[in-house]
Every structure is written in structure tokens, then in C-alpha cells.
């Protein structure tokens, strides 16, 4: 396992699911964590879990749809740990499961603000800081398999996640000479609150979702966390601008 000793890692939406699993995994590898979420209670629980395991972490509330809150989050990372080595733009929402013509303007605008605006605003604040550091930094943006394939009943979600990959590739190219690597991760259905909500609303969905994954199961947040860490590993220095699919073989066929 790579060591992240003395590395400062910021994760949005770290109060649950993939974000929490990633925060715990980085902390186990020696990183100092900035845990942010819109939900203070769950964000602080992640910090507690890290501390109970002997790690170091601090919490700040950040609504990722608000660019000012990203600036404040990066400033908090500097104040708390003195630098920012890694940012994982993970926070997101699932949105409403409905056909394109039944999605409202509000559904669309909220999805674009939370799942796409978040990555744009986040990277602006994070890259401005990383440019000040000779060591640069590494960013992982959490897209989705819906960012590389269409997602019937999820047009706004799929559009936002495709956009995340466009932002990732562009930022990677713009800062490739500045020692900043930017990659995206594209999970298929992964056990988390987001997917549980969907299955609770439409129980017959679970079997249908499972069937489209060749491995016959959903991903685990801890498995996605490992891929995110690999993308950020200091020794993985040649990888930038990629969108890595974590999908139990789904897109291989
Ligand atoms: N679970 C999956 O199947 C799956 C698949 C592909 C991609 N993803 C993506 O993974 C990321 C994490 O999702 P998850 O499955 O862990 O879901 P989750 O619901 O367990 O966690 C999402 C976290 O984001 C936070 N959040 C929501 N809106 C926010 C906002 N405006 N500002 C800050 N934080 C906010 C929530 O409070 C929560 O802690 C999302 O971007 C999601 O789109 C998930």
C-alpha cells in the first residue's frame, strides 16, 4: 500500500458512502484529512472514526454547490495542516429517477449545481492552492459509469457526470506541466446511502441493476476508495486525464 504520510487530503461529501470509505482509507495510510460535507453530523462522525483508529482529521461544512465555500474549505486546510496535496471531489446527489421530459427545471438546475458545479468550483480553489506548492498536487473527481454511458431515467445525472470527465481532462491538460495530476473515477452501482434510497423507492430495481454487472454484484465503497488512492499515489506519477471505470466488467462488453 502507498504511504500518504504527511500528505494533506481534502474530501467533499466525506460523511457517507464512498467519501467516508476514502477518508478512512487515506487516514489509515498516514494522511491528514480535511473531511467536508453538507451534513455536519455525519461529517463529524467520519472524523471521530478516523481519530478512534489513531488518525488525524478535521471537519468543515462545505456545500459544494457554492464556490465561496470551496475557497473557505481550502483556506481551512491551510490553516489546519499547512498545505493541500490531494483533493477528492466526491460529494453528489442521485437526483430524481424520471424520464427526460418529466424532469423539472429545478431537478436540472440542482443536479448541475451539485454534481457538476461542485467539481468546477472545487478545482478552481484547489488548483489555485496547488499552483503555490512546488510539489503541486493530485485531484480525483468522482464521476460515474453514467458519465461514459447514457442512463435512462437519469438524464441530468448522466449529463453532469459526463461533464465531470470533460472538466477532468481539460484541467489535466492545462496543469500537466505544473505537477498537478487530475483524474476521474467512474463507479458502477456501489453500496451507499444513494443507491439504498433508489432500491428502497423501487425494490425490483436491485435485481435489474445487479444483472447488468458481469461480476453479479455491486461495488463496495472500500473498493472505490482503493482506486482513488491508487490514482493519487505519489509513485503513480504518469497517470493524468484518465477516467477509470470501476464497474465489475460492465463496460468491457
Ligand atoms: N453509489 C453509487 O452507486 C455511485 C455510482 C457512481 C457514482 N457515484 C458517485 O459517488 C459520489 C458519492 O456518492 P455515494 O454513493 O457515496 O453517496 P452517499 O449519499 O452515501 O454520499 C454522498 C455524500 O455527499 C453529501 N452531499 C450531498 N449534497 C452535498 C452538497 N451539496 N454539498 C456537500 N456535500 C453534499 C451527502 O451529505 C453525503 O454525505 C457521488 O458523486 C455519486 O454521484 C456513486
Q: How would you explain this protein's 3D organization?
A:
This protein has 253 residues and is an alpha/beta fold. Helix content is 45%, strand content 15%. The longest helix has 26 residues. Bound molecules: nicotinamide-adenine-dinucleotide. The site of nicotinamide-adenine-dinucleotide has 29 residues, from helix 1 and helix 6.
Secondary-structure-derived class: alpha/beta
Rg for CA atoms: 17 Å
From the 3D structure, determine the CATH topology.
Rossmann fold
Strand content: 15-25%
Helical stretch tally = 8
What's the CATH architecture?
3-Layer(aba) Sandwich
Largest sheet: number of strands, sense, barrel closure: 7 strands, parallel
Ligand list: nicotinamide-adenine-dinucleotide
**Form type:** globular
Roughly how much helix do the residues carry, as a percent range? 40-55%
Q: Averaging pLDDT over every residue, what do you get? A: 97
Count of the domains? 1
Q: Order of strands across the biggest sheet?
A: 3-2-1-4-5-6-7
How far do the termini sit from each other?
30 Å
Q: Can you identify the CATH class?
A: Alpha Beta
Amino acid at each position: 500500500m502507498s504511504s500518504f504520510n504527511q500528505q494533506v487530503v481534502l474530501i467533499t461529501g466525506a460523511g457517507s458512502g464512498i467519501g467516508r470509505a476514502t477518508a478512512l482509507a487515506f487516514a489509515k495510510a498516514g494522511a491528514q484529512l480535511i473531511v467536508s460535507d453538507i451534513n455536519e453530523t455525519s461529517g463529524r462522525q467520519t472524523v471521530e472514526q478516523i481519530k478512534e483508529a489513531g488518525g488525524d482529521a478535521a471537519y468543515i461544512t462545505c456545500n459544494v454547490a457554492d464556490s465561496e465555500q470551496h475557497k473557505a474549505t481550502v483556506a481551512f486546510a491551510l490553516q489546519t495542516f499547512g498545505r493541500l496535496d490531494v483533493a477528492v471531489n466526491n460529494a453528489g446527489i442521485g437526483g430524481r429517477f424520471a424520464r427526460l421530459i418529466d424532469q423539472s427545471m429545478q431537478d436540472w438546475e440542482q443536479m448541475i449545481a451539485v454534481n457538476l458545479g461542485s467539481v468546477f468550483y472545487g478545482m478552481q480553489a484547489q488548483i489555485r492552492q496547488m499552483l503555490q506548492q512546488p510539489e503541486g498536487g493530485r485531484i480525483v473527481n468522482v464521476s460515474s459509469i453514467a458519465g461514459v454511458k447514457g442512463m435512462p431515467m437519469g438524464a441530468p445525472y448522466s449529463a453532469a457526470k459526463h461533464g465531470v470527465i470533460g472538466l477532468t481532462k481539460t484541467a489535466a491538460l492545462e496543469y500537466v506541466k505544473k505537477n498537478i495530476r487530475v483524474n476521474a473515477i467512474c463507479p458502477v452501482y456501489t453500496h451507499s446511502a444513494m443507491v439504498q434510497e433508489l432500491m428502497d423507492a423501487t425494490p425490483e430495481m436491485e435485481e435489474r441493476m445487479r444483472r447488468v454487472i458481469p461480476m453479479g454484484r455491486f461495488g463496495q465503497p472500500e473498493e472505490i476508495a482503493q482506486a482513488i488512492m491508487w490514482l493519487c499515489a505519489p509513485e503513480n506519477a504518469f497517470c493524468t486525464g484518465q477516467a477509470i471505470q470501476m464497474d465489475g466488467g460492465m463496460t468491457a462488453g
